[in-house]
Amino acid sequence: MRLVFDDQLGMLNTHLIELGALCENAIACAAKSLIENDKTLAKKAIEVDKNIDRMERDIESLCLKLLLQQQPVARDLRLISAALKMITDMERIGDQASDIAEIVLIADVFNKENTVHIGEMSKATIKMVTDSINAFVRRDLELAQSVIQYDDVVDKLFDDIRHELVSQINTDIHNGEYAVDVLMIAKYFERIGDHATNIAEWVEFSITGKHVDD
Predict the structure, then answer these.
(1) In contact, 34 and 104? CB cutoff 8 Å
(2) What range does the domain containing 37 cover?
(3) 3-state helix, strand, coil in the chain (%, to 5)
(4) Contact 182, 114 (CB under 8 A)
(5) What's the total number of domains in the chain?
(6) CATH code assigned at 120
(7) For the stretch 24-55, what's the b/e string if a residue is b when 16 or more beta carbons lie within 10 angstroms of its beta carbon?
(8) Which of 14, 30, 96, 128 has the largest count of CB atoms under 10 Å?
């Protein structure tokens, strides 16, 4: 029975890695669509989000199956419950990448000079998502904690973008609509970083039995 359970846990890890890769793809497509003014990539990010939604439901079903059929012990129970929490955050990451793509489709936000920090934010958030999933699969507490600390980098980039946009509005009031759209995009990236932090905190819980709220 334990062998079957371990096989299913392995399947859970594999699915989480696949879901993480989809999240990375959605973020990358959304960011690149903005930086290169590529509407096709924006539409791709929205399609990837739909795949994320489907995979989230599949993983949720697997987790419930493990809970109901296998009667896991305490450590395994923490791991499965953490996975259930994580996929909720991963689904939200897909939603926010899709939201960024939708802004690119309907608004005029293409500006090479002003997308430098956005590009940096996208790379930083992809790193956070990747590392948080790897921390879960490897049961790596140190890596999970590094993700939590790295959120400060994303927050700093958001502040830099916000200050730049305020300066642009002060220079020319006609930049207002553009600034609001770009600030919203930056805020979505900042939220993606928050969700990656949540994932890392649930990884910490699955290993130690303690959550940051405790």
Answers:
(1) yes
(2) 2-208
(3) 90, 0, 10
(4) yes
(5) 1
(6) 1.20.58.220
(7) bbbbbbbbbbbbebeeebbbbbbebbeebeeb
(8) 30
At 21, the amino acid letter reads A
Place of tokens 């049961």: 139
Tens-digit pLDDT profile for residues 28-43 = 999 899 888 899 999 9
Q: Over 70: is that where the pLDDT of 55 sits?
A: yes
Q: Are 125 and 196 within 8 A, CB to CB?
A: yes
39 part of a folded domain: yes
Q: Is residue 214 part of a domain?
A: no
Residues in contact with 31: Cβ distance below 8 Å, sequence separation at least 6, in sequence order: 100, 118, 119, 121, 122, 189
Average predicted confidence (pLDDT) for the chain: 89
Mind listing the pLDDT tens digit for each residue in 142-197?
999 999 999 999 999 999 989 888 888 888 787 788 888 889 999 999 999 999 99
- Any domain includes 36: yes
Q: With respect to residue 182, please indicate whether it lies within any of the assigned structural domains.
A: yes
What's the chain's Rg over C-alpha atoms?
19
CA distance 158 to 147: 17
Does the pLDDT of residue 4 top 60, yes or no? yes
